[in-house]
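$ run holo --ligand "adenosine-5'-triphosphate" --emit tokens
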Amino acid sequence: MAKQEDVFKKIVSHAKEYGFVFPSSEIYDGLGAVYDYGQNGVEMKNNIKRYWWEAMTLLHENIVGIDSAIFMHPTIWKASGHVDAFNDPLVDNRDSKKRYRADVLIEDEIAKIEEKINKEVEKAAKRFGESFDEAMFRQTNPRVLENAKKRDELHQRFSDAMNANDLKELRQIIEDYGIVDPISGTKNWTDVRQFNLMFKTEMGSSADSTMNVYLRPETAQGIFVNFLNVQKTGRMRIPFGIAQIGKAFRNEIVARQFIFRMREFEQMEMQFFVRPGEELEWFKTWKEFRLKWHKALGMGDEKYRYHDHEKLAHYANAATDIEFKMPFGFKEVEGIHSRTDFDLSQHEKFSKKKIQYFDPELNKSYTPYVIETSIGVDRMFLSVLCSSYEEQALEGGDTRVVLHLPKALAPVKCAILPLVKKDGLPEKAHEIMNLLKFDFACRYDEKDSVGKRYRRMDAIGTPYCITVDGQTLEDNTVTIRDRETMEQQRVSIEELHAIISKECSLNSLLKKLV
Ligand code: ATP
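-- output --
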């Protein structure tokens, strides 16, 4: 098994063992692709949400938030296109009895060819050393050229089939390229079929008054249908944005990779309304701001990349993903889309209500254009967890598992540890906790040796451990241990607040964005 897969397995079990993420309904053997957040997970998730919310609403005078309902009028999903087009093409393998997304199988095949090319380039780079001219090699090496041609042809056929919604052609591509089931290794595929991802339920109690409603598959539509409410009551002037955090539901065909693809998940979305014609400038601005938001966490700039979409939805005129290097490759964490006036126009058409904005500077009314930034809380959570996890070898042959979490996101900011459970140390420790707990998530722990307690805190990414000992009673000083260096420093109790605040407060993170 590849090493990265091993690491990922360890991260998943660590997340469970230390109260971050549990499989849902576990005592009933779980429920596919549904997860619960535990005592540490919920704190970290809330910190991620606060970071996003405050970066959007506090740092931008022209962005306000809302919290719309999960249930919405079913016509909204007709207008948005989800009833007719929120489909994935699925295919089953008759031997493994597993279901796959046909588009994902083909994308994986394209990635495999790409990988072959990169391996060829890497090999040559090693062989030629400093004199290696990569661009020239890519243009002239016969094996690279052959694979590049194969990749481009496959890509073209694939995007034509997706654009034309041609399921037969998708099936044919799987056949022609000899794509096999990763589990059974066979090519025994069924036909490709369309599958709508929305969950449907009924609202109302009597048979004749029930109405089919959907669990929302995205939070964005709640923003669009409240555009006029917010604009009018908030006296908002274009350009302005509306932000929302909330649950979304998708009946994903292939739910795998832990919390990367869930059936119930959470989104943080912002729709930014602009003048027609100015959207591409704003798209660029938001693309940059959103990457800055990610990078400010300090997890390593090299772990991010943009993936600009070549194939755009019919209503979009620009789209990019921010991808993060997960243990299973670069994957989308956030999407940024220039959606033109599609959504508001559709709701105007279906609701038969005028949804326009009167621009006092231009002295005319128009349907605003929209830039959307859309990020999954859970995927963000996974990226933070994966990039923080380390099994660290220590001097003397010992090891520790440590989460190098961005400090502002850590579920617990400081642990307060009396060296022993007697001699007035627990009382003193509680006194210190009472000083700090209004501003920082603190955890009191008096069980086991202090060494074991340090390890427990490393494993959940606690930036600081404060140890209360005999000397504390004499001179009001404690030791403060740093998660990264494991070094301890003796400081006075009065200094603690400033030390923790400097490194752990959300403010210090937010200040990097302005
Ligand atoms: P994918 O191609 O991975 O299915 P998408 O392009 O359909 O994602 P969007 O509709 O653009 O995703 O949703 C915006 C964000 O919501 C994604 O970038 C991702 O972070 C998150 N997201 C979407 N689907 C899921 C899911 N099933 N589980 C967890 N997060 C999700």
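-- notes --
The chain has a mean pLDDT of 95.
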